[in-house]
């Protein structure tokens, strides 16, 4: 008798749909959207009041030349991220094939923006006292990006769901 030398390919589990870990990703996306909208509302309300002039007017106790660019950078990035998130949510529910790349880009750009903001704010002595040690944020953001990138690169559910 001859033994069969045929190789067996393992079958990919045919899981698809917006279930599984994609439920968690939806929660993360909506949480980020709500958090960004809230931060925009807080920023807009601050731009017109005394706190803003207290931070950006020369001669003020709290004045530092980096406050204005740091706050405008944060505001502009938040607006951009809200628009990007809305596009991601539309493409997420449309199950577009390019969504995994958009998700990876969104989280990597968010990490990069966070680093830039921390570098800007680190130049302001008062902000350093208020923010304290942000090492936990850096580590958490790197881990979050790593998890999202690996999930969207390797998940069978992602490969089977985002096909249009």
From TrEMBL:
Keywords: Membrane, Transmembrane, Transmembrane helix. The chain crosses the membrane at residues 12-33, 70-92, 104-123, 135-152. Pfam families: DUF2569. InterPro entries: DUF2569. The lineage of its organism: Bacteria, Bacillati, Bacillota, Bacilli, Bacillales. This is DUF2569 family protein. It comes from the Bacteria.
């Amino acid at each position: 008798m001859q033994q069969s030398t045929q190789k067996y390919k393992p079958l990919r589990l045919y899981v698809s749909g917006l279930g599984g870990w994609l439920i968690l990703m939806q929660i993360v996306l909506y949480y980020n959207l709500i958090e960004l909208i809230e931060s925009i509302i807080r920023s807009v309300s601050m731009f017109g009041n005394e706190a803003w002039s207290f931070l950006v007017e020369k001669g003020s106790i709290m004045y530092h030349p980096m406050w204005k660019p740091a706050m405008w950078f944060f505001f502009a990035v938040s607006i951009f991220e809200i628009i990007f998130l809305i596009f991601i949510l539309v493409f997420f529910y449309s199950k577009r094939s390019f969504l995994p790349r958009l998700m990876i880009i969104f989280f990597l750009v968010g990490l990069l923006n966070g680093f830039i903001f921390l570098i800007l704010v680190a130049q302001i002595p008062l902000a350093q006292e208020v923010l304290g040690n942000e090492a936990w944020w850096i580590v958490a953001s790197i881990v979050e990006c790593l998890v999202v990138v690996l999930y969207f690169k390797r998940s069978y559910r992602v490969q089977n769901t985002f096909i249009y």
